[in-house]
Amino acid sequence: MIADLLRSRRFLPLFATQALGALNDNLFKNALAVLALFTAAQGGALIVALASGIFILPYALFSATAGQIADRYEKARLIRLNKGFEVLLMAVATVGFLLGNLPLLLGVLFGLGCQAAFFGPLKYAILPSHLAEHELVTGNGLVEAGTFLGILAGTVLGGALILLPSGTIIVSLLGLAVALAGFAAASQVPPAPSAQPGLRIGWNLAAETLRVVRLARGQREIWLAILALSWFWSLGAVLISQFPVVSKEVLGGGSELVTILLAMFAIGIGVGSVLCGLLQRGEVTQRYVPIAALGISLFAWDFAGVCPALAQQLMGIAVGDDAARLHALLATPRMWRLLADLALLAVCGGLYSVPLYALIQDRSAASERSRMIGANNIANAGIIVAGAVVTAVLTHQGVSAPQIILIAAGVNLAVVVWMFRVWRTG
User: Fold this and answer.
1) Does residue 170 sit within a domain?
2) Helical axes 102-130 vs 136-161, angle rounded to 10°
3) Is there a smaller number of Cβ atoms within 10 Å at the N or the C end of the chain?
């Protein structure tokens, strides 16, 4: 089924559009973060923190309206308009990079957040129009795998290329090329008819946000899936935010170690996402979600426990640079145990999230499907921000990265108990 979907026009153009979009978002975000750290002196760290909020803010502001628009109009045309806007943003980003204008680049980042917020309901709501029910889990798994591999590639390329002598030009041209490739892929997405042509679009953002959330809360099974997904994205954001801290402050590594940790996480999510389709054999069910959540806690707990033991083991090893430190780390069995924990944690993450997206798509009425995805994005944004605030407070109080991961794993166990209580049957 996987090969058939990847050869099919029903799926391949959308898959490519999404993966290229994820690559471009993270190429730009990481290039901007590194540029800010190297050019804004003392204000660089503040700009990096601000950038994260700027990108996620549109999800909270516009997801309700984005869902309404996706339900009202033909989705393939909206996807092309959305990707055309990305091309325009990358053209503006080129000007911003060449001028070294950080405010302009932050404006582009907000625009990319808007573009992503409007694309989310489209990409998930269009899948049931083009895929049979037994293909939904596999299709969602492939989309998730492509997304995380795009995130990994964009993150690595953005940080590496911007530091080259002509880095701003290279990143600008690459971002524009990726956006154009995404637009070309979007032009091949087959039409998907309007789900509710007469739907009134509300432009009062606060009122429409509340209305869409109430609509989702009125459908228990969908709302539970939204809450579970929101927790997953918050947990994932907390874990990813701690990887650089674990690398630098606990293990004494550099950017290469951070890249390895991110790569293991992204590849693991991709493997778990694809594996989910094989495991569930096309059945749309949340049956395995609590088990996957339990696996996340267990592997996160072991990951956090291995970190200080590994650091203690390496205290007596004298190394002169990051490369030598990385070589010393990779020569120890505990490091491979840590990487295995991270990979298996991520595999469980793929097994966790993919069925929930498929459930929202399958259980939503066709006329409301995009708005349900919009409600999911609103909840995701809110809980991710809450998780970031709690993490910042813990960090300020001197809680170490392994301890934060342990706390997250413990809270996740409480979520597992909740899941077993509310989802006793598949």
Assistant:
1) yes
2) 160
3) C
**Mean confidence (pLDDT) of the chain:** 86
First to last CA, the chain: 23
| Residue for token pair 């041209």 | 173
- Residue numbers of the domain that contains 363: 219-426
| Range name among 17-21, 129-133, 252-256 with the lowest pLDDT average | 252-256
Same domain, 185 and 223: no
Please identify, among 151, 173, 189, the residue that sits at the C-terminal boundary of a domain: 189
- Please count the structural domains in the chain: 2
Q: Are 43 and 123 found together in one domain?
A: yes
Using 50, 70 and 90 to split pLDDT, how confident is the model at 148?
confident
CATH number for the domain spanning 80: value is: 1.20.1250.20
Q: Considering only CA atoms, which of 376, 285, 352, 359 is closest in space to residue 127?
A: 359
Task: State the DSSP string of 48-94.
Answer: HHHHHHHHHHHHHHHHHHHHHHHHHS-HHHHHHHHHHHHHHHHHHHH
Cα–chain-centroid distance for residue 256?
A: 21
The answer to whether residues 254 and 397 belong to one domain is yes
Q: What is the pLDDT of residue 42?
A: 55
Query: Taking residues 288-302, what's their average pLDDT?
Result: 91
Q: Which of 189, 209, 229 represents a domain boundary (last residue)? A: 189
8 A C-beta contact, residue 268 and residue 342: yes
Q: Is there a single domain that holds both residue 171 and residue 81?
A: yes
140/422 Cα distance (integer angstroms): 24
Single pTM value for the model: 0.84
pLDDT at 41: 54
Alpha carbon of 278 to those of 133, 282, 379: distances in Å?
A: 14, 8, 29
User: Please, are residues 279 and 351 in contact by the beta-carbon 8 Å criterion?
Assistant: yes
The Cα 149–Cα 142 span in angstroms is 11
The DSSP code for 42 is G
Q: Which residues contact 182 (CB under 8 A, 6 or more apart)?
A: 16, 17, 20, 21, 24, 83, 86
CA distance linking residue 21 with residue 41, whole number of Å: 30
What digits encode the pLDDT tens for the residues 315-352? 765 555 667 777 877 888 888 999 999 999 999 998 99
Q: Is residue 207 part of a domain?
A: no
All residues at 6 or more sequence positions from 209 whose CB lies less than 8 Å from its CB, including other chains:
60, 61, 63, 64, 378
